[in-house]
Amino acid sequence: MNRLIVVTHGRLGEALLDSARLILGELPDGARDVCLCPEDNLDSMRAKIAAALDPVEEPGHAVPALALVDLFGGTACNATAWALEGRDFQIVAGVNLPMLLEVLMQWGRLSVEQASRVAVEAGLRSVVDVRAALSRLDTPAAVGS
Amino acid sequence: MPTVVLARVDDRLIHGQVVIKWLRAVPCREIVICDDQVSADPFLRRVLTLAKPPSIQLRILSIAEAVGYLGAGDGAPARPSGAAPLPAEDLKVMLLVKSPATVRALLDGGVHLDSLNVGGMAPSPGSRRIYKSVSATPEQLEILQGIRELGVLVRFQTVPEPEESAVPLESLRL
Question: Would the ipTM clear 0.90, i.e. be above it?
């Protein structure tokens, strides 16, 4: 079973997974959050991420995984990138709900490499200036077309 | 010799608070991370290099290298062989370290600091929380007191504003 971890400042990851559950119903077994708490530093955070990635019976032997992290350059991201030492998994920064939903919906059919590309594309597509999009609907070219 | 515009103890080093808040409040061109373990860890060096904003230079130095780089006051600073050339006189740098012991070593090596910001120290065995995200062992507290006795203004503050939110070591109830 591939693993999907959502690594965030505070409980954002848990909340994102809860919201995804509202929309999609049950989530894949391998999905979980890893919380960066105020008392964590780089070292403790890397240990948490390693624990979330490695099977209990075989520490250090990670299964295929995708980590979605919140803030590029933040500790959640840096510690996850540091955990790449000795492990091979995918990391995408900038997690949001549309990205997470798209990945979860396709999770069972994708390799983690493919899921990583799906995450980036969904994340990039998901930011929309809604007011501007409405205005474009109202331009003469759009009216009656 | 570069000017240290902010010296901060923060065991997350480069992270959200530093990039989003401190770098905007304290303009500088370069971040200097001083830590013997980090400077000897090529993988972590790459991770931190990736984490820095593109407009900021990053130097990751051992204590000995940082003493040479940040200058030993008057005398000629000891410079590691093969080090990058010294920057222009007016280079403003932010100094990030993980622990008070590193600061003490830098001061003992002759680096001059007017003030020290303590913003993040994770709990460790024997430590207790003394300020928001700062936990310290009795030994670390003693080192901070010693740094203060050297004339350095030691203040606790996680993010830069408001300015008056900085708590001096002497007014913490310990």
Answer: no
